[in-house]
Amino acid sequence: MSVRSIMRRPLFRCVPTRFLAFAATFAAASGFVACGEPAPTARLAPSGDDGSGHAAPSAATIAANTAVLSELPFEDETDFELARRGFIAAIEDPVILTESGVEVWNLDKFAFETGDSPDSVNPSLWRQAKLNSIHGLFEVTDGIYQVRGYDLANMTLIRGDTGWIIIDPMTTRETGAAALRLVAEHLDERPISALIYTHSHIDHFGGARAVFPDLATAEGVPVIAPEGFVVEAVSENVLAGTTMSRRAAYMFGFLLGRGPREHVDSGLGKASTPGTFGLVAPTQFIDATPVEMTIDGVRLVFQNTPGAEAPAEMMIYLPDWKALCGAENISHVQHNLYTLRGAKVRDALRWSNYIQEALRIFPDAEILFSSHHWPTWGNPDVVAYLKKQRDLYKYIHDQTLRLANHGKTPLEIAEEIRLPDSIAKSFGNRGYYGTLSHNSKAVYQHYFGWFDGNPANLNPLPPEEAGRRYVEFMGGADAVVEKARASYDAGDYRFVAMVLNHLVFAEPENDRARALLADTYDQLGYQAESGPWRDFYLTGALELREGAVALPFRLTGTTDIVSAMPTGLFFDALAVRMNGEKADGEEVVLNFEFTDIGETHVLWVENAVLHHEEAPAREDADVTVKLARSTWDAVLTQEKTLQGAILAGEIDVDGSRLALLGFFSLLDSFEPTFEIVRP
Ligand SMILES: [Zn+2]
Question: Mean pLDDT across the stretch 315-320?
Answer without folding.
Answer: 98
